[in-house]
Amino acid sequence: MSSSWLFTVAVGVTLVSSALAQCVTYGYCGRDEDSDKPLPCAVKRNPAPLESSFLEDACPALVDGKAAYACCDAEQAAVFKSEYKTLISLGVRKDSKCFKNFQNLVCQAFCSPKQSEFVAVNGTSGSGEKLSATESVYAVHKSFAQRVYDACKDVRTHIFGIKLMKYMCGKHADGKCSAQRFLDFVGAVYSEGGYSPLKIRHVLTDSPITVDGQTLEPFNPKIL
């Protein structure tokens, strides 16, 4: 059996897998009333090409050559890049394990071309063809979530050396934080004391889950 034949089969399997995955959000449709932040559009469509230059600072794990297929557009990528500045301003280094893996966790939920494999939209607003996604479920593998939390839990900020989790675990910032509570805060909306324009329910699991008939495989990339 030739190596070229195996390569052809491998490429074919990859293309079929990519074709089956879809975007469940893409672009922006409307704004959240409480935060005035833009809300992603709830869609069912194929990923679209996006120049790598837009992803380099927004979701570098997706960068592969000059262009990549993504479920976010250039405007969304720019917003993600801007949002990361809050972490940097607190003193989290861009080259740190905490920053790189937190960035990957967040951006893949919106930009991954395989978004529908681990994200489902279960809340929308608006009418007609352009619906805003107001709530989503994000299946994350328990081990990956724990590794991201472990990479960040002892990071200290510029503010009197206070630990990052003091600012990123909501009501559990008094030493009772955990991977789940950390991500609960990341996905919390303004009315819950968070900063996300849409509610993101991070489900930490080591097996597939089903949301409104859609099967989600937990997101479990290599730690960066």
TrEMBL record:
InterPro entries: NPC1_N. Residues 1-21 form the signal peptide. One of its GO terms (cellular component) is plasma membrane. Residues 22-222 form the Niemann-Pick C1 N-terminal domain. Keywords: Signal. GO terms for biological process: cholesterol homeostasis; intestinal cholesterol absorption; sterol transport. It comes from the Eukaryota. This is Niemann-Pick C1 N-terminal domain-containing protein. It comes from Rhipicephalus sanguineus.
